[in-house]
Amino acid sequence: MIDSIRGQNLLTLNDVSREAIIEVLDTAESFVEVNRRTIKKVPALKGRVVASLFFEESTRTRLSFETAAKRLSADVLSLAVASSSVKKGESLRDTIATIDALGIDAVVLRHQSSGAALQVSRYVPHVRVINAGDGLHQHPTQGLLDAFTVRQVLSERAGTSGLESGAKLFDGLRVLIVGDIRHSRVARSDIAAYSALGCDVHVAAPGTLLPADIENWPVRVVDDFDEALEWADVVALLRLQRERGSGSFVPSLAEFTRTFGLTLERARRLRPTTIIMHPGPMNRGVEIDSRVADLPSAVIERQVANGVPIRMAVLYLTVAGSSEGVS
Amino acid sequence: MSSGELRQTPPGGLAFFAKSQLLTGEEVERALKRMAHEIVERNHGLPRLSVIGLQTGGVAFATRIAEFLHDIVGDDVSLSLLDVSFYRDDLNRNPVPKSTATTIDHDLTDQTVIVVDDVLFTGRTIRAALNALSDWGRPRSVQLAVMVDRGHRELPIRPDYVGKNLPTSLDEAILATLEGVWIGTKGES
Amino acid sequence: MSSILLRGGLVVGPQSSAVADVLVVDGQIAQVAAQVAAPEGCDVIDASGCWVGPGFVDLHTHLREPGREEAETIESGALAGAIGGYTALTAMPNTEPVLDNVALVSYVLDRGARTPLDVAVAGAITQGRRGESLAPLAEMAELGVRLFSDDGTGVQDPSLMRRALTYARPLGVRLAQHCEDELLAAGGSMNEGAVSGRLGLVGRPALAEELMVQRDIELVALTGGSLHFMHLSTSRSLDLVHDAQRRGLPVSFEVAPHHFTLDETCCEQFDPIFKVHPPLRPRADVDALREALRSGTIDAVATDHAPHAPELKDLPFDEAPAGMLGLEYAASLTFEALGDAPSPQRFFSVLSREPARIAQLRHEDARVRHAGHGGAVVEGEDANLVVFDPETNWTARNEDLHSHAVNSPYDGRALRGRVRSTIAKGVLVVSDGVLV
What is the pLDDT of residues C370-408, one digit of tens each? Predict the structure, then answer.
């Protein structure tokens, strides 16, 4: 169990404690304030070099990380190593060695293979590795920004600040995660975060989109999706991971939407206080109806906005907390 | 607090072991009041004044000084808090401090900024504060008010208003709160 | 005349053991008795405290030549085998190109003949190992090939497997199957279970292996062809084959040391060193295999020695090739798994005598110039012997490997028992743990 990510790599949320998560959320609050200033910059990572290495293209996440690094005054090396048939088969060790030779303090890595971030961290133990999504495995900053968004919305409603709320408002909070759990790294990170924080997590998905050993997970599989919608305080929708083959696990997108999509009709059954979330990018009309995405209870844009302060918090804690500068 | 009694410093810091009390709460109160008067006098009233308390030790003092200033002049005095963690030059060597709120919500250009902290020691915290403040514009002047100046400056920084000058040795520590000022040592609890 | 005298070891026969001296002269066991006199110019080996038995026979070795010599060659593999106490290896056909015709089989037999060991060849069952049409089994059998396999994968099409068994039967050869249904295995990279779910790795369910085992047992019953099941990894697979053996069906099986030593949690750090097909299983299966070894219900131990060039094991876990080294540690791992009072009979049975019987290497075969292996250690037999020290404790180290490759999962592991000397075809190849 990791009690703090200071000076550590952030590869997975699986063995990260409640204290560690709250530390990130609390630190992110400071960076929300920084992001409101005219000069949205602090010198905390001045002189440090952060490489962003994206084997899987994702403009939004990459920009979010790079913005975060720049707002901490770090120098950013941006490498969008888009995965082509040429790139597949290239040794991770060689790629990271080339970049490391330039002298980096941290690498933000996104890769199509599960475990890639952990493997890279073994090659460069002196570099802080931040997992921006590895295959089906984990997407830790997404889990953190989702929890942060929930805390932000709920504490606003209660008239307190996020810092004051701490972890209390997660106790017993009813979170329903819907969709392609089996192939989703966001699901794995979200479940790890919400369970560590003390939420009551249920999942809803077609049988084929649940992992084979779901009975070992700290979640409950719901029998009735529509009933569960009324139960939930937070409904977190997942994207159907078509590029990871989930298309063949359901007969058709239409059938998926009919059985597990958040249609307008289903959205009407939600309690007025229920929060709707989606990690993006949305397949409008598949897992979420277009009009539902634009409802006030859908906080998708907030999730996106919170990406930068959360990633600033992660970079600050993991990199600034490291005892070595660039040698 | 009697000598030998433990007083925890903010999380991430070491524990403080008191040896003797140097100022009582009343003496602290009197010093702050005197400093408030000095501020008013030196600045010919309080046009465009912003009091900024440094997290976390300067917060209580800044609040009290702002109250005194309000009593003296009658107008509302702008009070903000500043966390300088992100501006420190020693992040490599010291543990990353827990972040606290920064509440500066207005442009500081042309303002007279009074930075308030509990103890002035090496001067590095104040340097970080000066660095931070420049992100909110170009103040007309920045003045420094501290409850205790304990010496051992490592940078060319000097206070404008001092509650008490207390020469110390490097292995000693000072704890300053509204309840009083103690001298002692810092260590693992 | 060259002679070697193994002095004072525990000579392990098929039923009993006794301390004796073993004299080897000109490639044959000349004398087994107490206090044998050493002839002039004889190499005397002090085997006191050690076990002396038939050299180990590997049913399952990937020698990578032709095509992947950067990982291993027939020669380097043979030397690694000798260090591990092996006097005979069976080269698997998944080379590049595949060993599915007499030309390539001859090539490997020739190269093998130049090594100190006997290198038998397993020919492919289907052309190119594509699983579409039969390879020329009869032609290859004429060269002396006794074992056929598409290893790397199993024959997926049941009608083709039926045809292969039927065709092979009158040839007096044995087919060997890598049991994994590829569709069920779904391209997974580790065992399907709690660990794969947590790690986000596609899993290969145990059923992918067990279903093909069941299928092939019934095909054997239908056709009468004999079948050897390779690297069985689950408790249920063992139950299925034991049941078939009780039915009197001509089936045999092997287990690999990694399957009775390592479990699926080894994959938790995403280190491709631990990636293998069939995959490392849960602890319960590992324990079941160990229990079966101790109780004597395992037919044979085979290494499935699978060298890979180091950069290939640096790839992401799902892209890296499957397979780990095994020749140099199989004996020690088997010894350790046999428990606190290991039976020397059982040890040599699973590592030498049974594999020799299954590979049909018990007796000399002039066509392939192979000597006899897995013998009783009596006068007149070919001298393929190993001296094993059960008392030594040592540590596996990658820098000590003789294989070209270094993909061993045992680096740094404490081991019990060690091969001291290996005599292959009457020649002292390994003495005191090093190549002569």
Answer: 889 999 999 999 999 999 999 999 999 999 999 999 999
Out of C198, C202, C316, closest to residue A116 by CB: C316
CB contact under 8 A, C319 and A188: no
Query: What pLDDT band is residue B6 in, cutting at 50, 70 and 90?
Result: low
Assess whether pLDDT exceeds 60 at residue A326.
no
Dihedral sign (CA B79, B83, B88, B93): positive
Nearest CB partner across the interface for B99, out of A27, A37, A72:
A27
The verdict on B11 touching A (C-beta cutoff 8 Å) is no
- Closest Cβ opposite residue C270 in set A89, A115, A185: A115
Residue B78 identity: S
Q: Are C60 and C90 in contact (CB under 8 A)?
A: yes
Q: Could you count the other beta carbons within 10 Å of the beta carbon of residue C385?
A: 31
ipTM field: 0.89
Q: What is the mean pLDDT of residues C76-104?
A: 97
Residue type, A112: Q
Q: What is the pLDDT of residues C112-147, one digit of tens each?
A: 999 999 999 999 999 999 999 999 999 999 999 999
By C-alpha distance, which of A32, A98, A107, A97 is closest to A74? Answer: A107
Give partners of A (≥3 CB pairs < 8 A): B, C
Residue C366 located in a structural domain: no
Taking the C-alpha atoms of residue A327 and residue C39, their distance in angstroms, rounded to an integer, is: 68
Q: Are residues A249 and A278 in the same domain?
A: yes
Neighbours of chain C (3+ CB pairs under 8 A): A
> What is the tally of structural domains in chain C?
2
Residue A3 resides in a domain: no
C365 within domain boundaries: no
Domains of chain B: 17-187 (3.40.50.2020)
Q: Can you read off the two tokens belonging to residue B157?
A: 């920084």
Tally of structural domains, chain A: 2
pLDDT for A325: 43
Structural domain span for residue A167: 140-304
Secondary structure element (H or E) that encloses residue C300, with its range = strand C300-301
In the predicted model, is pLDDT for residue A165 greater than 90?
A: no
B86 contact A CB<8A: yes
Judging contacts by C-beta atoms under 8 Å, the chain B residues touching residue A19 are none
Q: Which positions of C are annotated as active-site residues?
A: 304
